[in-house]
Amino acid sequence: MLVTAPISEIPPHRPFVEEISPEWYFRPEGEGILIGMGEVPTKNLQLQIHEKLQGEMILRAIHRVPVLEKAAVQTAWTGIRPLSPDNLPIFGTMPEINGFLLNCGWGGMGIIQSPIAGQLMAELVSTGRCTTEDIQPFSIRRFDHVYDGHSSST
Predict the structure, then answer these.
(1) Rounded CA gap, 128 and 120, in Å?
(2) Which of 4, 59, 102, 152 could form a disulfide with 71 if both were Cys (CB 3.0 to 4.6 A apart)?
(3) How many whole angstroms separate alpha carbon 100 and alpha carbon 137?
(4) Whole-angstrom distance, CA of residue 92 vs CA of residue 4
(5) DSSP 8-state code for residue 16
(6) Could you give the CA distance from residue 113 to residue 151 in angstroms, rounded to a whole number?
(7) Could you give the angle at the alpha carbon of 44 between the alpha carbons of 111 and 60, nearest 5°?
(8) CA distance 133 to 54
(9) How far is residue 114's CA from residue 111's CA, in Å, rounded to a whole number?
(10) CB atoms inside a 10 Å sphere around CB 88
Protein backbone atom coordinates (compact mmCIF):
# COMPACT_ATOMS: atom_id res chain seq x y z
CA MET A 1 0.00 0.00 0.00
CA LEU A 2 1.01 3.56 -0.44
CA VAL A 3 -0.42 6.88 0.65
CA THR A 4 -0.20 10.02 -1.46
CA ALA A 5 0.08 13.64 -0.48
CA PRO A 6 -3.14 15.64 -0.87
CA ILE A 7 -4.38 15.97 -4.45
CA SER A 8 -6.50 19.10 -4.98
CA GLU A 9 -8.27 17.63 -8.05
CA ILE A 10 -9.79 14.79 -6.00
CA PRO A 11 -12.68 15.99 -3.81
CA PRO A 12 -12.59 15.42 -0.05
CA HIS A 13 -15.66 13.14 -0.17
CA ARG A 14 -14.18 10.69 -2.62
CA PRO A 15 -15.50 7.14 -2.68
CA PHE A 16 -13.80 3.83 -2.05
CA VAL A 17 -12.95 2.49 -5.51
CA GLU A 18 -12.14 -1.16 -6.10
CA GLU A 19 -11.22 -3.24 -9.11
CA ILE A 20 -11.77 -6.93 -8.41
CA SER A 21 -9.16 -8.35 -10.77
CA PRO A 22 -6.41 -7.59 -10.11
CA GLU A 23 -7.31 -6.75 -6.56
CA TRP A 24 -6.63 -3.00 -6.75
CA TYR A 25 -8.30 -0.25 -4.76
CA PHE A 26 -8.01 3.30 -3.52
CA ARG A 27 -9.71 5.13 -0.71
CA PRO A 28 -9.40 8.28 1.38
CA GLU A 29 -6.56 8.30 3.90
CA GLY A 30 -6.33 11.58 5.78
CA GLU A 31 -5.79 14.34 3.23
CA GLY A 32 -4.35 11.91 0.69
CA ILE A 33 -5.29 8.70 -1.09
CA LEU A 34 -4.40 5.18 0.01
CA ILE A 35 -3.68 2.91 -2.94
CA GLY A 36 -3.41 -0.83 -2.51
CA MET A 37 -3.15 -3.95 -4.58
CA GLY A 38 -3.27 -7.56 -3.50
CA GLU A 39 -0.57 -10.05 -4.31
CA VAL A 40 -0.56 -13.82 -4.61
CA PRO A 41 -0.82 -15.28 -1.09
CA THR A 42 2.49 -16.16 0.47
CA LYS A 43 3.77 -17.96 3.52
CA ASN A 44 6.92 -15.86 3.40
CA LEU A 45 6.91 -13.59 6.45
CA GLN A 46 9.65 -11.30 5.14
CA LEU A 47 7.64 -8.14 4.73
CA GLN A 48 9.41 -6.03 2.15
CA ILE A 49 7.91 -3.65 -0.37
CA HIS A 50 8.27 -5.22 -3.81
CA GLU A 51 9.26 -2.55 -6.33
CA LYS A 52 7.69 -4.51 -9.21
CA LEU A 53 4.31 -4.75 -7.47
CA GLN A 54 4.50 -1.12 -6.39
CA GLY A 55 5.15 -0.09 -10.01
CA GLU A 56 2.20 -2.18 -11.22
CA MET A 57 0.01 -0.65 -8.53
CA ILE A 58 0.97 2.89 -9.55
CA LEU A 59 0.36 2.16 -13.26
CA ARG A 60 -3.05 0.65 -12.43
CA ALA A 61 -3.90 3.71 -10.31
CA ILE A 62 -2.96 6.13 -13.12
CA HIS A 63 -4.92 4.04 -15.64
CA ARG A 64 -8.08 4.17 -13.50
CA VAL A 65 -7.64 7.67 -12.03
CA PRO A 66 -5.37 9.65 -14.37
CA VAL A 67 -4.93 12.59 -11.99
CA LEU A 68 -2.99 10.25 -9.68
CA GLU A 69 -0.06 10.69 -12.06
CA LYS A 70 0.52 14.02 -10.26
CA ALA A 71 0.47 12.37 -6.82
CA ALA A 72 3.49 12.37 -4.55
CA VAL A 73 3.97 9.25 -2.41
CA GLN A 74 4.18 10.12 1.29
CA THR A 75 4.57 6.61 2.69
CA ALA A 76 4.35 2.96 1.68
CA TRP A 77 4.16 -0.35 3.50
CA THR A 78 3.31 -3.98 3.05
CA GLY A 79 1.75 -6.58 5.28
CA ILE A 80 -0.03 -9.87 5.54
CA ARG A 81 -3.79 -9.91 5.22
CA PRO A 82 -5.56 -11.72 8.04
CA LEU A 83 -7.52 -14.32 6.08
CA SER A 84 -9.15 -17.49 7.32
CA PRO A 85 -8.56 -20.79 5.50
CA ASP A 86 -11.91 -20.49 3.67
CA ASN A 87 -11.57 -16.72 3.02
CA LEU A 88 -14.65 -15.94 5.13
CA PRO A 89 -14.55 -13.91 8.33
CA ILE A 90 -14.57 -15.53 11.75
CA PHE A 91 -17.35 -13.92 13.72
CA GLY A 92 -19.12 -14.76 16.95
CA THR A 93 -18.27 -16.23 20.32
CA MET A 94 -15.20 -18.23 21.24
CA PRO A 95 -16.83 -21.30 22.79
CA GLU A 96 -14.02 -22.11 25.23
CA ILE A 97 -13.67 -18.56 26.61
CA ASN A 98 -16.76 -16.97 28.12
CA GLY A 99 -17.22 -13.39 26.90
CA PHE A 100 -14.51 -13.56 24.22
CA LEU A 101 -15.93 -12.37 20.90
CA LEU A 102 -14.34 -12.84 17.48
CA ASN A 103 -14.51 -10.41 14.57
CA CYS A 104 -11.51 -11.19 12.38
CA GLY A 105 -10.34 -12.71 9.10
CA TRP A 106 -12.01 -10.13 6.88
CA GLY A 107 -8.85 -9.47 4.89
CA GLY A 108 -9.14 -6.58 2.48
CA MET A 109 -12.93 -6.69 2.52
CA GLY A 110 -13.19 -5.61 6.15
CA ILE A 111 -13.41 -1.92 5.38
CA ILE A 112 -16.29 -2.49 2.98
CA GLN A 113 -18.16 -4.83 5.33
CA SER A 114 -17.45 -2.92 8.53
CA PRO A 115 -20.96 -1.40 8.81
CA ILE A 116 -22.65 -4.80 9.01
CA ALA A 117 -19.85 -6.22 11.17
CA GLY A 118 -20.32 -3.33 13.60
CA GLN A 119 -24.09 -3.80 13.66
CA LEU A 120 -23.75 -7.53 14.29
CA MET A 121 -21.11 -7.05 16.99
CA ALA A 122 -23.31 -4.46 18.72
CA GLU A 123 -26.18 -6.97 18.74
CA LEU A 124 -23.93 -9.74 20.03
CA VAL A 125 -22.54 -7.57 22.84
CA SER A 126 -25.87 -6.06 23.86
CA THR A 127 -28.19 -9.07 23.58
CA GLY A 128 -25.93 -12.12 23.20
CA ARG A 129 -27.31 -12.94 19.76
CA CYS A 130 -27.61 -11.47 16.27
CA THR A 131 -30.99 -10.80 14.70
CA THR A 132 -29.95 -8.83 11.61
CA GLU A 133 -28.08 -11.73 10.01
CA ASP A 134 -27.40 -15.39 10.74
CA ILE A 135 -23.77 -15.51 11.89
CA GLN A 136 -23.58 -19.31 12.18
CA PRO A 137 -21.72 -19.69 8.83
CA PHE A 138 -18.93 -17.53 10.28
CA SER A 139 -18.47 -19.48 13.52
CA ILE A 140 -14.99 -20.61 14.53
CA ARG A 141 -16.59 -24.04 14.97
CA ARG A 142 -16.57 -24.55 11.20
CA PHE A 143 -12.86 -25.37 11.57
CA ASP A 144 -13.34 -28.04 14.27
CA HIS A 145 -12.75 -30.81 11.73
CA VAL A 146 -9.29 -29.47 10.83
CA TYR A 147 -8.12 -28.19 14.20
CA ASP A 148 -8.59 -30.05 17.43
CA GLY A 149 -7.40 -27.26 19.73
CA HIS A 150 -3.96 -28.77 20.38
CA SER A 151 -0.77 -27.62 18.77
CA SER A 152 1.45 -30.17 17.15
CA SER A 153 5.16 -30.06 16.39
CA THR A 154 4.90 -32.58 13.56
Answers:
(1) 10
(2) 4
(3) 18
(4) 36
(5) P
(6) 32
(7) 50
(8) 38
(9) 5
(10) 15
Question: Is the full-model pTM beyond 0.70?
Answer: no
In order of their start, the domains of the chain are 2-76 (3.30.9.10), 90-143 (no CATH)
Across the chain, what does the average pLDDT equal? 82
The mean pLDDT of 85-103, rounded to a whole number, is 91
- Residue 51 has phi, psi (to 5 degrees) of -60, -40
138: exposed, middle or buried (C-beta count within 10 Å: 0-12, 13-18, 19+)?
buried
Angle CA 13–28–109, to nearest 5 = 115
Q: What are the pLDDT digits (tens) for 24-47?
A: 888 888 888 988 887 555 555 556
